[in-house]
């Protein structure tokens, strides 16, 4: 019983059966992403009131925070896939990890960028060595490292395994890094810029942020699925099932 | 409704550069990334078709 | 007894060989032949358990080598193209360190005599960096004389060796085989060795 | 056990032969540290303030320099293959290599650091803590670094990758290490930082050799 | 002339293949610069004060890293022999290699420096001068470095020697380069420093390739 | 016409050879023989002007090669043990770059045909790193087919080559010699080449 559960889990874990499945799911996630985005943008620009202390500048939060969240969340998901890949060595897991990395990196970049563009008006500086900022920067480095490592290895199987180890080591470290940076920052408190925390956010703001977060989420899923489909084709190019795919046959 | 006029909307109460600077890049990346992803799949598909075509030629 | 069944090897998009079977027993030696790039080195590395075969399995005394792991390695001596010889160290040091890696202690007299046997007398304490091409190979091959192993896997052992050295080495191999050892080797030159099995790769 | 010692002896011997390994790290350390006053200017107050940071960053970079040569030469000349083929379990041999690496790169830094610290007139206890922190920190650097070195072995552009992979992971070590010294300078207790360093070291000791070996197997097959 | 271009193209091609050459320097630069705040602490005033020093020292170290690999690989695989044997005069080929080295290590630093400068919130003119100073300084570093690389080619422990030989020679560049930026920050004019840098560069351009070639011939026979 | 008189070579404390004379003229080839470590490689490097001889001098067309410098090098093609082949680059790139180093432009067709001639068809765009031992040597040797030079100095050109390649290479050498070229080479294997001069080093 449990046995054949595993079987059909593996069935879905096989690229061959996942490829069409992903194909079916993608449009749905795109539509969801679109809906949430429109709603989120509407709230963030036309519903959410002007902030008392920060004027209109705070509206950046509506993309900044979701981006920041996604960047951290995606890294964990990536590591999880990598772990599965090492444990059960299912071919798909490695591909998923590889597909997630670029999106995660972009999210990290967005959190940095939007953060910087928020920081300039708020703190008068594009960048300060605040705990959150710094750890975001390091997270970005971790993503780049993962991508670079996989790009540098010719053999796909080796790339997957090496990447997996790196991702696992990384995910063990991320909390340590975040904690250490926070510690470092508090150690230097007072001297450093007082980052004036946003006042308890109005519920509308909170809603806006959450809905935007959902939008980012859907976007990320859709995109990862698209990329994983491409990767599957690249990796399985020489297998028969790929050669027999309608999109390959029908020219 | 926060904005009296489009101009006001784009000015963002003086924060225009920063707000639009952030949302702009965000939008840009989120448009470019999907294009790249689909392009990647299209490319590999094209080369696959080419191989298949070549194979059929050889078999003849 | 080393047997392999239905081995196949793929590099990049290129399938080097497939469905390759072989069986070498005590007292036998196998000459792996094939053109440049046929896949000899690849085959030997697979047999040594250094790289995995795409298909097929390899048995040592009837057990898969994957399972045997260290047990198999204790019986194996593999010498490849580039020979784990440190240019900075002297032949003597290279030999003793290699022995320690194998977990066998090697006293100096043994080592020196082995080196002498391979015509390196007078070069024992000269950094390998200064040695000639052939002498470097000899340092590597000297391990054959000191390491006790049943299965020898040698990739191009005769390259860069002069006539004397070739004879000496083949003598060593014959001795090993007649004592019930197994030898698998590749070589493009014709080898002065009696009745060995021959395996053609590729082509 | 015996094999570990053999490996360590071997690597130390090699390091002695090609002096570079030991000395590069050391000199790099000295040079980096002594360059900063030239770049920043001679105000003692300022220099003293940034001394712990500079010393630690320098130590960190010095360790990182050696990393790419931790496995590469053995990979190039086939020694690594022979290690995989040797009957002694690979993990032990790797552990041995890591220890050797620390002895050749980490330890000298620890011994030299106080001398350089004096240049920035750190006082006795600051120097003491600096040494302790480095004693806990440098092995950590070697351990984490080994993973990176194994992952990037024989990979195109290994050198960069290595620093790219390893340095983010070094951040906590740097922070606690430098932090400890700063604490003492500003008259507080450094035990918190030091114990955190120790904790990290414990984790790494348990975890890193294993990861390194796994990575090496992948790199070699 | 043609040969120079050929050599440059060749070295750039190689750098592209083993990405390391280009990126090592670059990433090393980024990472070193972003590590210091973690070691020193986040006070913007302090950071801004030491920014020029940090940026310049980092640039200097980044260049030095690549140096040992400037001739070593070509020496190892016999390419250098072939260069000596080639009918085109060795001097030209060497000049080509130095130029390629600057393009792969120096230029990226120049382009990236302003971005990193922002992290230490340097203002626009400071950034401008930083770029100019680096534009004058990095070729200088490559030229001086090449001599050192040639002198230590194939020498045991070359790595150390190299840094020992080269770094003292780098000091003037460092002082004038960092000085220029500090001048601007403290509101004075940097022309003095910059013109001194330019003068140094002129001398080196005339002198270094010749010295390097001579050193190489010695190293090879 | 390459002549050398009273050459001697010392390495460390060891005197490898002394008072060695040789003369090779157009249409002749010289087989330098000697056991491992006799000093063959050292001799060839001296003849190529890569390392100085302790005593004796070397004349090309009657002029000392030191004086001729680039003039001499234009006529010379030296291929040593490790062959200036970049592992990261493809055979095609290696060949073209080597040509550019020689100051001769080489169009792609020529290069490709040269590689094909050395049995590297299908490997033109594969990084040399992936090639087999013999294929690496072939990439190096392909320069013989593209570089116009009167004097070939080849150190162990036949190592790692399979039988076919050996024949092909010796064919190439014969062709070169019969067209009035000069070839000096070392090899421990017996070479299928007609009537060459023989020079014994050491012993
Ligand atoms: C993982 C990284 C990050 C996370 C999770 C994050 C999260 C947040 C959150 C939740 C807020 C809302 C205000 C608050 O609750 O304090 C915020 C505000 C802010 N963040 Fe980030 N952020 C990250 C990275 C960055 C970066 C890299 C920058 C700048 C480069 C940045 C700049 C800002 C600024 C300027 C604010 C406004 C602070 C204020 O309210 O005055 N953040 N961030
Ligand atoms: N990534 C790759 N893509 C395509 N072909 C590859 C790749 N890697 C290796 N090869 C091919 O695999 C073969 C490796 O063969 P191997 O080294 O076993 O040859 P060999 O029989 O030992 O030859 P030699 O006699 O020259 O030593 C070569 O033909 C090489 O071109
Ligand atoms: N520093 C040194 N001290 C003592 N002997 C040295 C030194 N350097 C080189 N030698 C000796 O010089 C000789 C180098 O000879 P060379 O490389 O020319 O040999 P070869 O004839 O090419 O041999 P092979 O056939 O193996 O290539 C070797 O015997 C080596 O031991
Ligand atoms: Mg081979
Ligand atoms: Mg030789």
Summarize the structure.
Chain C has 203 residues and is α/β, with parallel strands linked by helices. Chain C is 34% helix and 26% strand.
Alpha carbon gyration radius of chain B: 23 Å
Helix and strand content put the structural class of chain B at mainly alpha
Elements of chain D, N to C (H/E): HHHHHHHH
Helix content of chain B: over 70%
Question: What is the averaged pLDDT score of chain B?
Answer: 83
- Overall 3D shape of chain B: rod-shaped
Structural class by secondary-structure content of chain D? mainly alpha
Tell me the greatest interface: D-E, 42 and 42 residues
As a percent range, the share of strand residues of chain B is under 5%
Portion of residues in beta strands of chain D equals under 5%
Question: Roughly what percent helix of chain D?
Answer: over 70%
List the helices and strands and how they pair.
The complex is a heterohexamer, with 1 copy of chain A (251 residues), 1 copy of chain B (60 residues), 2 copies of chain C (203 residues) and 2 copies of chain D (221 residues).
Chain B: H1 6-11, H2 16-59
Chain C: E1 2-11, E2 14-24, E3 29-33, H1 40-47, E4 55-60, E5 63-64, H2 65-68, H3 70-75, E6 76-79, H4 91-101, H5 108-117, H6 133-146, E7 151-155, H7 163-178, E8 182-186, E9 197-200
Parallel strand pairs in C: 3-8, 3-9, 6-7, 7-8
Antiparallel strand pairs in C: 1-2, 1-4, 4-5
Chain D: H1 2-17, H2 20-40, H3 44-76, H4 79-85, H5 90-119, H6 124-151, H7 158-185, H8 191-220
Helix pairs in contact in D: 1-5, 2-3, 2-5, 3-5, 3-6, 3-7, 5-6, 5-8, 6-7, 6-8, 7-8
The structure holds protoporphyrin IX containing FE, adenosine-5'-triphosphate (ATP) (2 copies) and magnesium ion (2 copies).
Task: Tell me what the structure shows.
The complex is a heterohexamer, with 1 copy of chain A (251 residues), 1 copy of chain B (60 residues), 2 copies of chain C (203 residues) and 2 copies of chain D (221 residues). Chain B contains 2 helices and no strands. Chain B has 60 residues and is mostly helical. Chain B starts with 5 loop residues before the first helix and ends with a helix. By secondary structure, chain C is α/β, with parallel strands linked by helices. In chain C, 34% of the residues lie in helices and 26% in strands. In chain C, strand 4 (55-60) and strand 5 (63-64) form a beta hairpin. In chain C, helix 4 (91-101) runs parallel beside helix 6. The longest helix of chain C has 16 residues, at 163-178. Chain D is mainly alpha-helical. Chain D has helices spanning 2-17, 20-40, 44-76, 79-85, 90-119, 124-151, 158-185, 191-220. The radius of gyration of chain D is 18 Å and the shape is elongated. The mean pLDDT of chain D is 88. Chains in contact: A-B, A-D, A-E, C-D, C-F, D-E, E-F. The structure holds protoporphyrin IX containing FE, adenosine-5'-triphosphate (ATP) (2 copies) and magnesium ion (MG) (2 copies). One magnesium ion is lined by residues 40-41, 155 of chain F. One magnesium ion (MG) binds next to helix 1 of chain F.
